[in-house]
Structure formats: C-alpha cells, structure tokens
Amino acid sequence: MGMPKANPTPPLSHPRRESIDPSAVMRIKHLQLRAKTVVEGFFNGLHRSPLHGSSVEFSEYRPYSVGDDLRGLDWKRFARSDRYFIKKFEDETSRRCYLVVDQSQSMGYGSLEYTKINYARTLAATFAYFLTLQRDSVGVMTFDEAVADFIPARRRPGHLHQMLGVLSRPLSGKGTDIDAPLKQIASLVGRRGLVILISDLLTPVDSLRTNLAYLRSRGHEVGILRILDPTEVNFQLDSPSMVIDMETGREIYLDPDAARDDYQKAFQQHQEQLQTVCDSLAVDLYPIVTNQPLDDSLFHLVQSQQRRTRPTARAGMLSRSASSRGAT
Q1: Which of 84 and 197 is assigned the larger pLDDT?
Q2: In this structure, which of 51, 122, 126, 174 has its CB flanked by the most CB atoms within 10 Å?
Q3: Where is the VWFA domain (predicted)?
C-alpha cells in the first residue's frame, strides 16, 4: 500500500529500551515460541523503560459517567478510592480483533536472511498471542489475489494453535487483491472491533480508500502495518539489470540512475497518498522495515490506542488508563 520515503522516520518513536533483534527471533522455528519471545521481550522492555508505570493490564472497570446504571457501581472500590467506578461485563471487556495478513508473492521478497512474509507471520502470531493473553477474541484472514483462509474471532482452548497453523502455510497466490478481504471482514463482523491489516500494500490507493471507509463507517478501529524490506525503502541498483516482477513474472530492464530516481519519486508519492487516506479516516498507518524490532509494533499500537481513548473509556486495545490505576 503506502510507498515509503527514501529515509522514512522509524515507525516507532519511544524512550530507549532494550529490544529483541529480529534476526534472532527468526532463527526460532516454532511460530508460537517466536510470538512468546517477542511478547515477553515487550513486557520486559516496558518494565525497564521510563514507561514502566504505563499499564497494559486488562481493564475490568471504567470510571462512572453521568447516565450510567447505578446498579453497576462498585461500592467497595469507592470506599477505597472515594471515586466511582462501573463494573464492566464480559461483552464490554472482550473485544474482537481480526488480523488480515497478505500472503501474495511480493511478500516472499527479502534481502535479509528472512523474507517479508516471515516477518509478517511472526508479527501476526505475536499479536494473536498478545491479544489472547488479554482475553480478547482473535480471528485471522489470509489473502493474495483472493481470500485464502478465514478463522472467525474466538476465545477458546486450541484457537491460537489453529490460527498459527493458518499463518504458517506457504505462499501460493501471485497478485494482491486487497478489496476481497476487507469487504469480507466488513460483511462478516457485525460487532465493532479492531482490524489489523498486515501487508506490503502493493495495491492502488483508491480501492484501499473505499474499503477502509466502509470498515470505519461500521465502527471498526483499523490499524495498518506496512511491511517493507530495507532495499524497498532505500532502493539501490549498481548496474543495468533485468529484474522480474514477483507478482506478474514479467521481466523488466532497469537503468540504475533512472530507475532509482523514478522509484523514489513514485515511492514517496504513494506513501503520501496512503498517509492522506489513512489520516482522513482516522486509520493508523505504520511503515515497518523488516530489520526493526518486532516489539516496536506492539508498543506503537498500544500507544496509539491510549491516545485515541477518552479517560472514561477502556484504554484502546489493551491498556488501562492511568487514572484507573491510581484509584486502586
């Protein structure tokens, strides 16, 4: 989808903290173990950083607002804090999240010892593992030129293992059709939830705009993680070459200087168009380069949800508000 700038701002800006080398994570063959390693590193990093006071615990309460049913007041909590809190029931605290993962052939590219799809799968598995720990219902959809696999959002024993099995399947399709999965998610998911699209976004901006607008009109929160290889961000070609389009199989002759200039212009223009679309629809867009720590994405989404959430609401996807923590 969006085309990164020649020297883009790193997708996550946060206080210095120890992060896990993605190369080390990719050497772990078992996908669930990879996800567990990233999540544990994320929590450890929060504890060691200046953000250690920012909780990512699951919230079972929310501050009282005028008009709330007084029968939901927690009087014991009021006695301890002299503040009113409402007990949140299961349908409030459990949210549905769908991970929509691009498995087209372009995701098979990689200049490192691993490819974009290896990174994307690990990222999706990390979110699935993390959200499962938060007692949220998680589902997965994979796609290339059509929807490949779909697992509805659930929360039950064995569900995580089923999702990781789908994420581990080899690439098969060629092109990318982002319309189909977003339309299907919008039609299948009636209850408001969170949709996380993980893709290199090699797709026209207009089709993306239409489908994102439809998702947002149905009340869904949307986050997009654009997976990019370092060579896609800083394109270099040392000599005239014949290259092959991974999705069409077409051979293309490239002159180094002309190709670099044309690519960077198109890349930046596309990225700016994507950013404009996402900003207009209140969709979070994160360009992520595959040599960056995987736990950055967790941090990014948690922080963005905290910024979007009013003090009276559940702090986005995962976090409990600071005022709620202070009341305990």
Answers
A1: 197
A2: 126
A3: 94-278
